[in-house]
Amino acid sequence: MSTGNIITEGATGSKSKEGVIQWVIPYYVPNIDQVLTVGKTDYEGCEEVSRTWSCNNDGTNPSYIVTVVYEGGSAESDQNTYGDEDSTVWSLDFEIAEEPIESHWNFEEIKKQYGGKWGDPENEEDWVFPKELPAGSSSGSGLGGKGKVGGGAKNPMKGVKTYLVMNCTASVSYTKKTLPKEVISKIGGLEPRIPDAPPQFNSLDVGPRNWLKMPPQISKRGNVWQINESWRLSEYVAWPKEVYPGGKPR
Fold first, then answer.
1. What does each C-alpha distance from 120 to 103, 124, 155, 164 come to in angstroms?
2. 20 to 30 A from 172, CA-CA: which of 54, 132, 189, 238?
3. Could you tell me the pTM of the whole model?
4. DSSP string covering 71-128, please?
5. Is the pLDDT of residue 120 over 70?
């Protein structure tokens, strides 16, 4: 199509899995004065996010191809909690992290079974396990103690400073014309189940654990907001509400 001396051709469009619509429009302009002004209006309800241009020929009056990128989304994205249901992306991510043994949720029982004391010649804040299991320990059998129970059995925790944590994070990516206020206000909140998540997510057996709302990732894409929200599953026991007072389980 053409408007005066400005011609567009070869327009291409796409829609991301989160629902962001993108148009890439090349414009032909006969002089450099129009490089920064051509295509300034919205295109198919989307707003400009970037532009590039190239010169077609050398000489006194060169023409240019200006490529403008527009992004946006549909108004229907505001009808549901997480935008257009067909473009909402849910995921579960798992990772292994290493944490200090002192932060273990069952550390009091670990101390009883494997002994030890506070203080290390190089770092007095670390817990130090002895070479041998303490008398009365029930952890000697099958752990290098050759069937002995306490007193003299080799301590498998000798030298241990950290332990492995199996972390699970649930997340959802979507787009909204209007940025929801609760995206920020619910940070740090506790939930026994993820709000409005697919039934398959909330049917998973998490035992006594619960979910902690993490900070979101938000970016402006033309005339829509692309949002990624996430929740971290606690380790074996629930996140303590005394530590995370923002939590108000439903």
1. 17, 5, 17, 22
2. 238
3. 0.74
4. EE--GGGGSSTTS-GGG-EEEEEEEEEEEEGGG-TTHHHHHHHH--EE--SS-TTSEE
5. no
